[in-house]
Amino acid sequence: MNVAKILILPALFISLILPVTGCQEEIPQTVTSVMLDETSVTMIKGSTHRLSAVVLPEGIETSLEWTSTDTLVATVSQDGDVLAVEEGQCRIWARSGAFMAVCDVEVLKVPDESIVLNETSIEIMPGEQFQLTATINMQEVRSEDILE
């Protein structure tokens, strides 16, 4: 009988202490907010622009779903890169679960005579390189416009 008490008491002690000092269950964090770095942007047809999203709480692992309300006006990649397709207006949404952020996008036509760069702004560090692409748009010349 004493042997049984000796074995039961340590087992009982361990079973009571282990849940308190053992592995603690992690409470999963959920998204509480999604914000974009810009709430509106104006672009020239054919240009690109990157939107950045901030998800709170910081450090939470989540994926964002990027969508455009009108892909005929502007499209958006799953990295937040917006491509101005055609003149018009649309909205770009960044969504994580029930939380969303929006950026209003206005796409303007390319001026008749202009030079359009493929990027409107970039950040590079000293020593880094980046290649810009320039598109030159010229007004159509009609034969009646040419003076003799």
UniProtKB/TrEMBL annotation:
Gene3D superfamilies: 2.60.40.1080. Pfam families: Big_2. Residues 30-106 form the BIG2 domain. It comes from the Bacteria. SMART domains: BID_2. This is Ig domain-containing protein. The lineage of its organism: Bacteria, Pseudomonadati, Bacteroidota, Bacteroidia, Bacteroidales.
